[in-house]
Amino acid sequence: MDQPALARRLGLRQAVAIGLAAMIGAGVFAVFAPAAQAAGTGLVIGLAIAAFVAFANASSTAQLAARYPESGGAYRYGRERLGQWPGFFAGWSFVIGKTASCAAMAMTVAAYLVPAEWQRPVAIAAVVAIAAVDLRGITRTARVATVIVIGVLGVLALVVAAGATASFGGAADGASSGSSPLFGPTMLDHGWLGILQSAGLLFFAFAGYARVATLGEEVRDPARTIPRAIGIALGVAVLVYVGVGTASLAALGPDGLAASVAPLVDVVEAAGWQWAAPVVRLGAAVAALGALLALVAGIGRTALAMARDDELPRPLARVHPRFQVPHVAEIAVALVVIALIATVDLRGAIGFSSFGVLLYYFIANLAALTQPRAERRVPRALSAAGAIGCLVLVATLPPVSILAGVVVLAIGAAYRLISRAARRRRARLPRADGRA
């Protein structure tokens, strides 16, 4: 039976906006503090490592997306190039990692806007609102993402300017650490293990570029548009993160940054710009909403692709006849995220999300390595470097994140084995009845 297709409505500008909204989201407002805890000023090296691994992964993803312009991203690539099990693990890793990210980002929205007692209800309301936007269609999602990206980039420019002011002695209270150099021997004080752990945590903030690939069935001229959109979005994100990271270190110092709950708010306050703190808080909430918008869309389309192949329950493959979105999958994602917000403490969500997403990209790089010369757009060595980098960063994540990730992967594998066995039994029943 023919599968209902999604409509190709996205051009280059919309695809870049969705990728940027996924990357320049809650991560940039939160990830530098745990990275500083792990590596101190060495987080600058960690940022460079994370950016390189992201570049290698993006190159492999763009190469694969040009060949397989369908929904599902690395799930589809792994299935086509490596087999059903690698494809399943890629898709499952993406779904579990990014579902945790959705819950964390919804809670970030609430943490920046309301007191503690209101945070869970507001986070749930944010998920409901974002799911409603996504259900109205992908072009509406892209328009909202464009507005969000423009606003958040303006807020981050304000933070960078405040960090520069503070580092040159403009702080009202002397909070600046201008006497502590960003680049020098102190960058290695926490050792290479700390630097690599910071890279693994910082990778969480880069991971959104693949959202363009998961929307591959809805992009016009995908062989040309997807690689360009991924490259542009990643390049802009790297520049933004370098600016924000160095400004935060310059204004707060490594110890101050590591201890901060809202580091970018502290940066503007260190410059004496108290008037800007509410703007940054609002920007953080809007950025988290933008990332949540793109995440729900991406997870829904990966679930759609897996359900089409009977790797997830079949109803998740339904496409809305009017809005042409995988509405059942997106509603299911929203319900799971709401359940997580209501029941789970997600302070470790960054590490868990990084675990799932790094494995997702590991499989994407392996898939890219198998492509013939005629399909290659980047050197094979770059895909190999991306695969190795993913494994190294996974191994250096906090042990609790690794353990939780392994357990959830095992649950997914068990589900697949049981469901496949059940389908085989059902397939044999008609023949048995016919012989009776």
Molecular structure report:
The protein has one domain (12-422): Amino acid/polyamine transporter I (Up-down Bundle), CATH 1.20.1740.10. It contains 17 helices and no strands. The longest helix is centred in the middle third of the chain and has 38 residues, at 222-259. The protein has 436 residues and is mainly alpha-helical.
Summarize this, please?
This protein has 436 residues and is mainly alpha-helical.
List the helices and strands and how they pair.
Layout: H1 12-23, H2 26-30, H3 32-39, H4 43-67, H5 74-81, H6 84-113, H7 119-135, H8 138-170, H9 191-206, H10 211-214, H11 222-259, H12 263-270, H13 277-308, H14 327-343, H15 349-369, H16 380-395, H17 399-435
